[in-house]
């Protein structure tokens, strides 16, 4: 049935996108600092290696975006040395965590899983446990303050192990110890080429025995073998990025669906494996050429369980709203499409099923319905 007014099927305005409830599954704590916070923490702590003088946060923000805009994941990752450097104390970690929650809430995010690697925050003498507790405290404080401002948001932590290092089992155990205390799952990140996920099999097998959840960065800088290992050897619940699954899909207008799926792509789609896609980040690391040519358009059309994410808000100068705006512009997405991405993300979250369902039915759908019905009252129908 076509709708009586063109409005609901139009590309939503930035203001509508901002107000739409959003769900974020892939966001790095050490990739989402406010530039001014990086500058202030550096000044406070006497960190002298910032690439730009600490009294110019705007230039600092620009530096992060430009340095990350490198065309390679390895160079992109070098910028994290500066954010991690100023996140080595309890107070700094709690502050960064609190601000992340407030920034997401202000952007209309209602549920987020934020990840970080505890092993990268030990230089100031904190233990792994103290790192997790500092971040948890910051998240809870952020939730309280956001609620006091009328923006309710729920946040869970994902503990990341660095794939080039050898602490993944230890971090998996840490995630398991804190699983009912703010931590909802586990991840591995870092340079992909040369560091296959199977190096960390003991960590994944441990988490499976504990009935815990994990996602794996795979199919970003490296292709199908990485995705295949993450799913079939490691047993990942979700894929971080996963964009290279496109290599197993052949576009063919004569095929029934307009494309032919290889065995792995078919498995990913048919098993409803959630793909945590991060379009802007992919443009920066060279994993995609442009928004218009980003694989998300094809994958959404083929019914993969695609979600939209920010990855690193500082390095990509982005937000959930910005990612949605770019995609809406590139693919003519309507509020229905944005709701579809959002429901996909909520279905794929690592919190209990009843809570995911309540978020979908009692928060996400009613608010999208409200947004979709606004045209009725805008005078356009008369
Ligand atoms: O897109 C990415 N691919 C792989 N690793 C990443 C990406 N973004 C951030 N990190 C890595 O994850 C660590 C913990 O948050 C960051 O310090 C960074 O090294
Ligand atoms: Zn990432």
UniProtKB/TrEMBL annotation:
Cofactor note: Binds 1 zinc ion per subunit.
Keywords associated with the record: Hydrolase, Metal-binding, Nucleotide metabolism, Zinc
Keyword Signal: no
GO BP annotations listed: adenosine catabolic process; hypoxanthine salvage; inosine biosynthetic process; nucleotide metabolic process; purine ribonucleoside monophosphate biosynthetic process
UniProt-annotated site: Important for catalytic activity, residues: 241
Gene name of this polypeptide: add
This protein's GO CC annotations: cytosol
Entries under PANTHER family matching the protein: ADENOSINE DEAMINASE (PTHR11409:SF43)
The protein's name in its UniProt record: Adenosine deaminase
Limits of the Adenosine deaminase domain: 21-365
GO molecular function: adenosine deaminase activity; zinc ion binding
Function, as annotated: Catalyzes the hydrolytic deamination of adenosine and 2-deoxyadenosine.
């Amino acid at each position: 049935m076509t709708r009586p007014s063109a409005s609901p099927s139009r590309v939503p305005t930035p203001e509508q996108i901002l107000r739409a409830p959003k769900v974020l599954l892939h966001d790095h704590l050490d990739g989402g600092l406010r530039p001014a916070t990086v500058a202030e923490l550096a000044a406070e702590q006497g960190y002298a290696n910032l690439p730009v003088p600490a009294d110019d946060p705007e230039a600092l923000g620009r530096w992060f975006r430009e340095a990350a805009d490198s065309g390679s994941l390895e160079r992109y990752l070098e910028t994290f040395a500066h954010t991690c450097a100023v996140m080595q104390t309890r107070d700094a970690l709690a502050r960064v965590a609190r601000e992340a929650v407030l920034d997401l809430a202000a952007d209309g995010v209602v549920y987020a899983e934020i990840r970080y690697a505890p092993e990268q925050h030990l230089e100031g003498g904190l233990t792994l446990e103290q790192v997790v507790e500092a971040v948890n405290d910051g998240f809870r404080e952020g939730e309280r303050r956001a609620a006091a401002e009328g923006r309710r948001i729920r946040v869970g932590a994902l503990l990341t192990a660095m794939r080039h290092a050898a602490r993944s089992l230890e971090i998996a155990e840490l995630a398991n110890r804190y699983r009912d205390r703010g931590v909802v799952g586990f991840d591995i990140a870092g340079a992909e080429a040369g560091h296959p996920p199977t190096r960390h099999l003991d960590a994944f097998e441990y988490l499976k025995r504990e009935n815990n959840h994990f996602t794996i960065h795979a199919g970003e800088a490296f292709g199908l073998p990485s995705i295949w290992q993450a799913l079939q050897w490691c047993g990942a619940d979700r894929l971080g990025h996963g964009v290279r699954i496109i290599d197993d899909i052949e576009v063919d207008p004569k095929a029934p669906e307009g494309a032919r799926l290889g065995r792995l792509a078919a498995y990913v789609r048919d098993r409803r494996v959630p793909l945590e896609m991060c379009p802007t980040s992919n443009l920066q690391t060279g994993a995609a050429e442009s928004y218009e040519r980003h694989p998300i358009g094809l994958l959404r059309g083929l019914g993969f369980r695609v979600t939209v994410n920010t990855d690193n808000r500082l390095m990509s100068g982005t937000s959930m709203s910005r990612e949605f705006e770019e995609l809406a512009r590139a693919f003519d997405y309507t509020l229905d499409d944005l709701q579809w991405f959002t429901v996909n993300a909520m279905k794929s979250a690592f919190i209990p099923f009843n809570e995911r369902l309540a978020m979908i039915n009692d928060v996400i759908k009613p608010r999208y319905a409200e947004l979709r019905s606004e045209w009725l009252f805008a005078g356009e129908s008369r």
